[in-house]
Design brief:
There is one protein chain. About 65% of the residues lie in helices and about 0% in strands. The chain has 17 helices and no strands. It starts with a helix and ends with a helix. The radius of gyration is 20 Å and the shape is globular. Helix 2 packs antiparallel against helix 6 and helix 9 packs across helix 10. It has about 300 residues and is mostly helical.
Length: about 300
């Protein structure tokens, strides 16, 4: 897959710009410096480690990340240089960019989105995408990073356009409207398109940009040969999981339908693995309703309906 050609095909040549009322936070200078240096052919690990270590916050986050259950290293990693050596430069670059965006967007305030719940849902989606990517024999790290970032624009957008997004939330109880379709009708673009253009401007890896652009394609992505066995498909399937804005009202039903025709996809088993990893990574045990718990609730409701009908 030529991801550069994919990105160019999807985004075209026109530069995308958000309206003036949208103000995206700046990424730390160390992130920009690291991103640029990582693209140089003769760059050394020592130089890259030095750039990250110039920002104490990044240093802490990199070490926290590499020692998490996501990577599963047996011994504790104690230096940034060691982390880069173990992860490799491309993987480190993706992780650093992902962390930086999450940190930058965490300061955004939105009356419609509880950021703690928002990032908890994104974490579960990211772990789910990683599990699906493994089933597809696709790049699990790209799937995880892209899924973690798939909705990063929404806090900014729902803050700057509160009335429009409130209208969507109010309608969602009555109409089965997909968020991107609503955004296209109201704005002429949607948060997936915006995220792809912004990350392209930030020089994110092309495959992540493509994942973001296509993350609301749903099951239809599996019918496209170019993407069906790639992280793009894993991220698109993760976007079907429920979230606070109910972006895809029939998402759970679509995943259950997929389970009936894809023998390798055991939704209950995937949900159990996802929940275990979610809690290992410090996920919210009290307020976040995991996929596993949703499936259990659904099974109880079905059993109750059967009991009443009998």
């Amino acid at each position: 897959m030529n991801w550069k050609q994919c990105r160019e095909s999807l985004l075209g040549n026109e530069k995308f710009e958000l309206p003036p009322q949208f103000k995206l936070p700046m990424l730390p200078q160390a992130v920009s410096d690291f991103n640029q240096a990582a693209g140089e052919e003769d760059v050394t690990i020592d130089r890259l480690a030095g750039i990250l270590e110039s920002d104490s916050g990044l240093t802490v986050e990199v070490l926290k990340m590499v020692n998490s259950s996501v990577y599963g290293f047996r011994s504790k990693i104690s230096s940034v240089k060691q982390a880069i050596n173990l992860l490799g430069i491309p993987r480190t670059k993706t992780s650093v960019l992902t962390m930086a965006v999450k940190e930058a967007m965490s300061g955004c305030q939105s009356k419609l989105i509880n950021l703690k719940h928002f990032w908890a849902a994104n974490m579960e989606r990211a772990i789910f995408a990683k599990e699906i990517a493994a089933l597809l024999h696709a790049d699990t790290e790209i799937a995880y990073a892209a899924s973690m970032l798939q909705d990063f624009m929404l806090p900014v957008l729902t803050s700057a356009m509160y009335e429009q997004y409130t209208d969507f939330v109010d309608r969602s109880g009555e109409e089965q409207t997909i968020l991107t379709a609503y955004e296209q009708k109201k704005l002429g673009w949607d948060h997936a398109v915006a995220a792809a253009h912004i990350t392209a401007q930030w020089e994110f890896p092309d495959e992540i940009v493509c994942c973001l652009y296509l993350h609301h394609k749903g099951l239809a992505i599996l019918m496209e040969p170019d993407y069906a066995q790639t992280p793009v498909a894993a991220v698109a399937l993760s976007a079907l999981l429920p979230d606070a804005l109910q972006q895809t009202p029939q998402g759970m039903e679509q995943l259950l339908k997929l389970q009936s025709i894809w023998k390798s996809f055991d939704m209950q088993a995937v949900a159990e693995r996802v929940e275990d990893q979610f809690y290992e990574m410090g996920g919210d045990r009290i307020h976040h309703l995991t996929l596993k718990r949703r499936l259990e609730k659904r099974q109880k409701e079905i059993a109750a309906e059967v009991s009443v009908s009998c």
